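C-alpha coordinates for chain A. Residues wanted.
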Protein backbone atom coordinates (compact mmCIF):
# COMPACT_ATOMS: atom_id res chain seq x y z
CA UNK A 1 0.00 0.00 0.00
CA UNK A 2 1.61 3.25 -1.14
CA UNK A 3 1.78 5.54 1.89
CA UNK A 4 2.92 9.15 1.89
CA UNK A 5 4.69 10.29 5.05
CA UNK A 6 3.83 13.77 6.32
CA UNK A 7 7.26 14.85 7.51
CA UNK A 8 10.19 16.99 6.44
CA UNK A 9 12.42 15.47 9.15
CA UNK A 10 14.88 13.27 7.26
CA UNK A 11 15.95 11.38 10.41
CA UNK A 12 12.35 10.53 11.23
CA UNK A 13 11.63 9.50 7.62
CA UNK A 14 14.72 7.27 7.53
CA UNK A 15 13.68 5.53 10.76
CA UNK A 16 10.08 5.05 9.65
CA UNK A 17 11.17 3.56 6.31
CA UNK A 18 13.49 1.12 8.09
CA UNK A 19 10.86 0.17 10.68
CA UNK A 20 8.10 -0.41 8.12
CA UNK A 21 10.39 -2.21 5.64
CA UNK A 22 8.91 -5.59 4.80
CA UNK A 23 5.41 -4.55 5.89
CA UNK A 24 2.40 -3.90 3.68
CA UNK A 25 3.08 -0.15 3.82
CA UNK A 26 5.42 1.26 1.17
CA UNK A 27 6.50 4.60 2.59
CA UNK A 28 7.39 7.48 0.33
CA UNK A 29 7.96 11.20 0.69
CA UNK A 30 5.49 13.54 -1.05
CA UNK A 31 6.91 15.90 -3.66
CA UNK A 32 5.25 18.84 -1.94
CA UNK A 33 4.33 19.15 1.71
CA UNK A 34 2.53 22.23 2.97
CA UNK A 35 3.63 23.57 6.34
CA UNK A 36 1.18 22.82 9.15
CA UNK A 37 0.80 24.81 12.35
CA UNK A 38 1.43 22.15 14.99
CA UNK A 39 -0.62 23.93 17.62
CA UNK A 40 -2.40 20.97 19.23
CA UNK A 41 -1.68 20.30 22.89
CA UNK A 42 -1.02 16.58 22.41
CA UNK A 43 1.28 14.50 20.21
CA UNK A 44 -1.75 12.78 18.70
CA UNK A 45 -3.44 16.09 17.98
CA UNK A 46 -0.40 17.25 16.01
CA UNK A 47 -0.06 13.93 14.18
CA UNK A 48 -3.70 14.19 13.08
CA UNK A 49 -3.23 17.79 11.93
CA UNK A 50 -0.34 16.74 9.69
CA UNK A 51 -2.05 13.59 8.40
CA UNK A 52 -5.31 15.36 7.57
CA UNK A 53 -3.50 18.21 5.82
CA UNK A 54 -1.55 15.87 3.55
CA UNK A 55 -4.59 13.62 2.95
CA UNK A 56 -6.62 16.65 1.84
CA UNK A 57 -3.83 17.81 -0.48
CA UNK A 58 -3.54 14.37 -2.08
CA UNK A 59 -7.31 14.12 -2.49
CA UNK A 60 -7.39 17.53 -4.19
CA UNK A 61 -4.79 16.22 -6.68
CA UNK A 62 -6.81 13.00 -7.10
CA UNK A 63 -3.97 10.91 -5.69
CA UNK A 64 -5.42 7.73 -4.17
CA UNK A 65 -2.99 6.74 -1.41
CA UNK A 66 -2.67 6.39 2.34
CA UNK A 67 -1.02 8.94 4.61
CA UNK A 68 1.12 8.44 7.71
CA UNK A 69 2.05 11.22 10.13
CA UNK A 70 4.24 11.06 13.22
CA UNK A 71 4.49 13.49 16.10
CA UNK A 72 6.95 12.67 18.79
CA UNK A 73 9.05 14.17 21.51
CA UNK A 74 10.61 13.94 24.93
CA UNK A 75 8.74 14.41 28.21
CA UNK A 76 10.88 15.12 31.27
CA UNK A 77 9.27 14.64 34.69
CA UNK A 78 11.45 17.20 36.48
CA UNK A 79 10.27 19.79 33.94
CA UNK A 80 6.59 18.85 34.36
CA UNK A 81 6.53 17.12 30.97
CA UNK A 82 8.46 19.70 28.99
CA UNK A 83 9.62 19.95 26.25
CA UNK A 84 6.83 17.54 25.24
CA UNK A 85 4.89 18.54 22.13
CA UNK A 86 7.28 21.49 21.74
CA UNK A 87 10.38 19.26 21.49
CA UNK A 88 11.17 20.23 17.89
CA UNK A 89 10.70 23.92 18.74
CA UNK A 90 12.23 23.88 22.22
CA UNK A 91 14.14 27.12 22.70
CA UNK A 92 12.69 28.63 19.51
CA UNK A 93 12.07 27.68 15.90
CA UNK A 94 15.45 28.98 14.72
CA UNK A 95 17.45 27.07 17.35
CA UNK A 96 19.53 24.08 16.21
CA UNK A 97 19.54 20.72 18.02
CA UNK A 98 22.89 21.20 19.84
CA UNK A 99 21.45 24.36 21.42
CA UNK A 100 18.20 22.55 22.34
CA UNK A 101 20.17 19.82 24.08
CA UNK A 102 22.29 22.42 25.88
CA UNK A 103 19.14 24.22 27.05
CA UNK A 104 17.72 20.97 28.41
CA UNK A 105 20.92 20.29 30.34
CA UNK A 106 20.87 23.84 31.72
CA UNK A 107 17.28 23.45 32.91
CA UNK A 108 18.15 20.19 34.62
CA UNK A 109 21.35 21.44 36.26
CA UNK A 110 21.45 20.26 39.87
CA UNK A 111 18.72 17.62 39.38
CA UNK A 112 20.15 14.27 40.60
CA UNK A 113 20.27 11.35 38.14
CA UNK A 114 17.46 9.40 39.79
CA UNK A 115 15.08 12.37 39.35
CA UNK A 116 15.89 12.86 35.65
CA UNK A 117 13.23 10.38 34.50
CA UNK A 118 11.91 10.94 30.99
CA UNK A 119 10.15 9.23 28.15
CA UNK A 120 10.11 9.42 24.38
CA UNK A 121 6.58 9.32 22.98
CA UNK A 122 5.51 8.73 19.38
CA UNK A 123 1.99 9.23 18.07
CA UNK A 124 1.14 7.89 14.61
CA UNK A 125 -1.92 8.86 12.59
CA UNK A 126 -2.71 6.74 9.54
CA UNK A 127 -5.41 7.73 7.04
CA UNK A 128 -6.62 5.69 4.09
CA UNK A 129 -8.88 7.36 1.50
CA UNK A 130 -12.51 7.57 2.66
CA UNK A 131 -11.77 5.93 6.01
CA UNK A 132 -11.52 7.20 9.58
CA UNK A 133 -8.00 7.79 10.91
CA UNK A 134 -6.23 5.05 12.83
CA UNK A 135 -4.23 6.40 15.77
CA UNK A 136 -1.65 4.64 17.93
CA UNK A 137 1.12 5.60 20.35
CA UNK A 138 4.42 4.15 21.50
CA UNK A 139 6.55 5.02 24.52
CA UNK A 140 10.05 4.29 25.82
CA UNK A 141 11.08 5.20 29.37
CA UNK A 142 14.54 6.29 30.42
CA UNK A 143 16.55 9.13 31.93
CA UNK A 144 18.13 12.38 30.75
CA UNK A 145 21.89 12.09 31.10
CA UNK A 146 24.09 14.81 32.56
CA UNK A 147 26.12 15.11 29.35
CA UNK A 148 25.77 14.08 25.73
CA UNK A 149 26.94 10.60 24.77
CA UNK A 150 27.10 9.22 21.24
CA UNK A 151 26.76 10.62 17.75
CA UNK A 152 24.00 8.47 16.28
CA UNK A 153 20.31 9.16 15.96
CA UNK A 154 19.01 12.72 16.05
CA UNK A 155 17.20 15.19 18.29
CA UNK A 156 17.53 14.39 21.99
CA UNK A 157 19.02 10.91 21.40
CA UNK A 158 22.50 11.83 22.76
CA UNK A 159 20.92 12.76 26.11
CA UNK A 160 18.46 9.87 26.46
CA UNK A 161 19.73 6.96 28.57
CA UNK A 162 17.90 3.73 27.74
CA UNK A 163 18.17 1.44 30.80
CA UNK A 164 17.54 -1.85 28.96
CA UNK A 165 20.64 -1.25 26.83
CA UNK A 166 22.62 0.52 29.55
CA UNK A 167 23.53 3.38 27.24
CA UNK A 168 22.18 6.33 25.30
CA UNK A 169 20.00 6.09 22.20
CA UNK A 170 22.76 7.89 20.28
CA UNK A 171 25.23 5.06 20.97
CA UNK A 172 22.90 2.39 19.58
CA UNK A 173 23.20 1.36 15.96
CA UNK A 174 20.28 2.34 13.74
CA UNK A 175 19.14 -1.29 13.74
CA UNK A 176 19.35 -1.51 17.55
CA UNK A 177 17.43 1.70 18.09
CA UNK A 178 14.77 0.85 15.53
CA UNK A 179 14.13 -2.45 17.32
CA UNK A 180 13.22 -0.81 20.65
CA UNK A 181 12.29 2.83 20.05
CA UNK A 182 9.03 4.63 20.72
CA UNK A 183 8.61 4.84 16.95
CA UNK A 184 9.00 1.05 16.63
CA UNK A 185 6.41 0.47 19.38
CA UNK A 186 3.91 2.79 17.70
CA UNK A 187 4.57 1.15 14.31
CA UNK A 188 4.01 -2.31 15.77
CA UNK A 189 0.73 -1.12 17.27
CA UNK A 190 -0.39 0.30 13.90
CA UNK A 191 0.52 -2.86 12.00
CA UNK A 192 -1.38 -4.94 14.57
CA UNK A 193 -4.51 -2.82 13.99
CA UNK A 194 -4.15 -3.09 10.21
CA UNK A 195 -3.73 -6.87 10.41
CA UNK A 196 -6.83 -7.12 12.61
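Reply:
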Amino acid sequence: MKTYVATTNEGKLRELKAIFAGSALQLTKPRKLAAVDEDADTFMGNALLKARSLAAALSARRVHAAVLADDSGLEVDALHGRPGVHSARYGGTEVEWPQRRALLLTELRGVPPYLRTARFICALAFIQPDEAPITVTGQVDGFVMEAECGSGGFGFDPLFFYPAAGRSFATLSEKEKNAVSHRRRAADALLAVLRA
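The mean pLDDT is 94. Residues 2-195 form a domain with the Maf protein fold (CATH 3.90.950.10).
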